[in-house]
Design brief:
Elements: E1 2-5, E2 8-14, H1 20-29, H2 35-40, E3 45-53, E4 56-65, E5 72-79, H3 89-99, E6 103-110, H4 114-122, E7 126-132, E8 135-137, E9 153-156, H5 157-160, H6 164-180, H7 192-199, E10 210-213, E11 219-227, E12 233-241, H8 249-263, E13 268-270, E14 273-274, H9 278-286, E15 294-302
Parallel strand pairs: 5-6, 12-13
Antiparallel strand pairs: 1-2, 2-3, 3-4, 4-5, 6-15, 7-14, 7-15, 8-13, 9-10, 10-11, 11-12
Helix pairs in contact: 6-7
């Protein structure tokens, strides 16, 4: 498809293997990371479309799927900084939207990317979530444990592995909370055993993933901790409670995790906090994080 952008003709066509060198050049000139090429070479990849000006690749849009959220086609795109005035992004989006037959089309961008957000809104994409990813320097804050309850007890994920009934109860609560907070992008149907594998992720720190259990042996709250991307950082994972009236337990568990992390010689702790999760919001608001930029997720439904 040829479209007119300013005084230049833009050729929008499906990406093919012969376009790989042009894509490598586009990524290099715009200092983009390797995730674009990795997606195209992965099993998740479904389709991609490129925008050409005088045989030069000036834009790419990539669609891929995630088995964990099977209702959506995820999108990543890049426009050459020298050609953004041509406004070719809408044409790339149109090609991808036409390719997707049903379900949702989903893309995430930083809140500072005003031009991209405008393009999405003009293409009937709606914001469904904001995610904050702050980092806290553990040595610069005072950590106090203020919560006390003589009835309940704190255990760890590592200890719970040896108690199958409690472990199954925890996994079901994690599944329920995750599904409730991701209604806009439904989760695939999976067994308890599959969810347990997700909980026991490779980077989980089981001895510092804390679970609060009451006197009836009912799980009330949980907060998981993972190894970060570098050896000086830990990362908050999934957290939740059985009842929102008990949500004040979460900052207590998280504070215990920060104390543990500092004792282990860690300097930083980070996390991803979604606006759609009341549990994540509780931590983001109650812990001494500095305000951080938002990662916005937009979605458009493609009907049959």
């Amino acid at each position: 498809m040829e479209v007119k952008g300013g005084f230049m003709m833009v050729d929008v066509r499906r990406y093919g293997q012969s376009d790989e060198q042009a894509l490598q050049q586009l990524l290099k000139e715009n200092k983009a990371d390797s995730s674009y090429m990795a997606l195209i070479q992965s099993e998740k990849y479904t389709a991609a479309f490129g925008a050409y000006v005088e045989k030069r690749l000036v834009g790419i849009i990539i669609g891929w799927e995630n088995a964990f959220h099977p209702s959506s086609t995820y999108v990543k795109f890049l426009i050459d900084s020298q050609y953004r005035q041509l406004d070719v992004a809408p044409f790339l989006f149109n090609e991808l939207v036409e390719h997707v037959k049903r379900g949702f089309i989903q893309i995430s961008v930083w809140e500072s990317e005003k031009e991209v957000i405008h393009t999405l809104q003009m293409n009937q994409f709606n914001e469904i979530r904001r995610t904050y990813m702050p980092t806290l320097e553990l040595n610069n804050i005072e950590l106090k444990v203020q919560f006390s309850d003589s009835v309940g007890r704190i255990t760890t994920l590592g200890e719970m592995v040896s108690t199958p009934q409690l472990m199954k109860q925890l996994v079901r609560l994690v599944q329920q909370n995750y599904e409730e907070t991701h209604r806009a992008n439904p989760v695939a149907h999976m067994s308890v055993e599959q969810w347990e594998k997700l909980v026991m992720a490779e980077d989980i720190i089981s001895e510092a993933s804390f679970v609060y259990v009451d006197e009836k042996n009912e799980i009330i709250a949980y907060s998981f901790l993972h190894a970060g991307e570098d050896e000086m950082t830990n990362e908050f994972g999934w957290c939740g409670v059985k009842d929102l009236n008990q949500i004040d337990i979460l900052p207590y568990l998280a504070t215990e995790q920060m104390i543990w992390s500092r004792e282990q010689g860690k300097t930083y702790i980070t996390g991803e906090f979604d606006s759609t999760s009341p549990y994540a919001r509780a931590l983001y608001q109650d812990l001494p994080f500095q305000k951080s930029p938002a990662w916005l997720t937009f979605q458009k439904q493609k009907k049959d």
